Amino acid sequence: MSSSSSVTLPPRLSFSTRYRTAIKLALFILPLTLLTLLVASLHPISKARTHGILRPSSAYPPIPRIVHYVHLQKSEHTPLSLPFSSYLSIFAAVLYIQPTKIYIHTDYNTTAISDATEHGDRWTHKLLTTWPELLEWNPVTPPTYAGPTDTHHIDAIQHKSDFVRWDQIASSGGIYLDFDVIALKPLDPLLNAGFAFIAGRQYGNEHEGGSLNGTINNGAFMSVPNSAMSTIVKGEQHAGFDGKWESNLVANTRTAEYLVNVPYECLILDRHAFAPTHWFADSKEGTDNLFRVQEGPPSPEPEPLPDTPREPVKVYEAVVRNRRRRREWEFDWSSSYLLHAFSTGGYQRFIHPRLLLERRSNYGVAVWAIVKEMVDRGLIEGTEGEAYGES
Fold it and tell me: Could you tell me where the Pro residues compositional bias lies (predicted)?
C-alpha cells in the first residue's frame, strides 16, 4: 500500500526577472567600489595614518600610577623632618591618583629614616607610618658636578633634585610631584589620554615679563617609562647644566615644544592645570594671597558635585552655583588638576588642619575637601593647630 504527498516547490524565476535583479545589485555595488578606490587613491595607508585615519585612539598605554617625590639632605647633619603640608601632598596623591607605589628618592640613610620614624615630630612620624605598604624610601646618590666636562659644581639642592627626578621618571614612569604640590581632582583623564609625557606651564618669571604662560613646570609632570621627553632630558641635562636657575626649565620647555610635533608624544597644558598661582609674594595670584587668612567671613562650603559623569551638564551647573556663592577674594580652581603651591616652606604657620578647615584662605579653599576626608577617615582630628607638629 502506498501513500502520496504533495510537495510545494518554490516558483521558478524567469530569466528576465533574474537578469533585472542582477542589474540592480550591480548598480548598487559599483558606486561603492568606485568610492572605495577613490578614497584609497587619495589616502593611502601611510597618508591616512598621518591624517589620523586608521590611527589607534591612543599611541601609548596609560601612564603608570607610580608617584615620585625627592627629598634630599641640605647638609650632612640635617635631620629628616616633614611638615603637615608634605603629609597633605601624599594623602591627596593617595586620594586622587590611587597609586600602586609611592617612592621618596632620598640620600638620607636608613638610620636617619628609622630615627625620624621613632623620634621625629608628629607629622614626620605620621607620614612615615600611615602608608607602610605603599610608601618606599629609595636610596639615591645625587650628582655633585655637571656641565659639558662635569666640572661645574652643583650647589643648590633643588638642582640636585632635578637630576634625580628625571633619572627616576625615565626608569619607571609615573607622576613626579614636589612636596608642595597638591592633587585637587582625579588624574585619570590625563593618565589615560594616550600621551607619553604630560606637563603644564607656569607663570613666566621676571625675565619673561611675568607673562601668563612661561616655561613648563618642573615640579609636577607625568610620563610613561622611557618616554622621548624623559630620555632626552636625562641624556642632555648634565651637559647643559650651567648653574643658572632657569636654564633647565628653558631647555626642557624647548624639548617639550619640539616633541609636540610627534603625535601623542607630548601634551603641554596651560598654567591653570598644574601651577595656577605665582611664586611672587605680592602678585595678585601670588603666595601672600594664596596662604594668608583673608578678611571677612569664610568661604561657604561648596555644594557636592553630582557623581554623574555621563551627565556633564548637571556637574557644570553645580560648579556654576558654587562659583556664584564664592567670596570676592577666592581664586578659581575649577580647571586645576594640581596645585603647585610655591614657597610653602615660608607659610607653614598658615598650613594646619584647624585653619584650613575654616576656609579663610585660598589654599584652605583648595584643600578643604582633602583635609575633611582626612578627618572622615580618622587620620587626623581636624583640631590640630600650628604647634601640633612641633612635638
Answer: 297-307
Please give the model's pTM, rounded to 2 decimal places. 0.84
Spatial neighbors of 384 by CB under 8 A, at least 6 apart, are 84, 352, 353, 354
Residue 293 lies in a domain: yes
Contact (CB, 8 A) for 262 and 228: yes
- Which domain does 368 fall in, by range? 61-303+334-390
Q: Report d(CA 374, CA 230) in Å as an integer.
A: 34
328 in a structural domain: no
Helix residue ranges, H only, the chain:
15-42, 45-50, 84-96, 110-119, 122-130, 157-172, 188-191, 228-240, 247-259, 271-274, 287-291, 312-324, 353-356, 362-376
- Rounded Cα distance between 20 and 13, Å, is 11
Cell reading at 160: 640636585
Determine, yes or no, domain membership for 9. Answer: no
CATH code of the domain containing 93: 3.90.550
Residue 371 lies in a domain: yes
DSSP class of 337: S
Nearest to 162 by CA among 273, 249, 75: 249
Query: How do residues 381-390 score in pLDDT, each as one tens digit?
Result: 999 998 887 7
What value, to the nearest 5°, has the Cα angle with vertex 220 and ends 244 and 255?
55
Could you report the per-residue pLDDT of 274-323, keeping only the tens digit for each? Answer: 999 999 998 889 999 999 999 999 999 999 999 887 899 999 999 999 99
Q: How far apart are CA 201 and CA 218, in angstroms?
A: 9
How many domains is the chain built from? Answer: 1
In angstroms, the CA 53 to CA 353 distance is 52
Closest C-alpha among 75, 85, 177, 123 to residue 364? 85
Of 208, 234, 209, 212, nearest to 223 (Cα)?
Answer: 234
